Amino acid sequence: MSVVIDRDGRPVSYEAAVNLMDDELRELLHANLAPCSEQEFFDAYLDAHCVKYGEEFRID
């Protein structure tokens, strides 16, 4: 299981995070960022999600 660190410093399952991501936004970022690390992708997704939805992407 791959783990990334969220903005609060908590470990998060990368696979679980990907399953909860907006498909369109995830694919757009993948097209623009690949290849990159899972942490780099997750960080970029957090920023993009906040811009698109006006709120943080949270996994509780």
Description:
With 60 residues, this protein is mainly α. The chain has one domain. The protein contains three helices and two strands; from the N terminus they run E-E-H-H-H. The protein has a two-stranded antiparallel sheet. Strand 1 (3-5) and strand 2 form a beta hairpin. This is AcrIC5-like domain-containing protein. Residues 6-57 form the AcrIC5-like domain. InterPro entries: AcrIC5-like_dom.
What are the main properties of this structure?
60 residues; mainly alpha; two-stranded antiparallel ribbon; 3 helices; 57% helix; 10% strand; globular
Short description:
The chain is mainly alpha-helical. 57% of the residues lie in helices and 10% in strands.
Question: How do the helices and strands line up, and which of them pair or pack?
Answer:
Layout: E1 3-5, E2 11-13, H1 14-20, H2 23-33, H3 38-53
Helix pairs in contact: 2-3
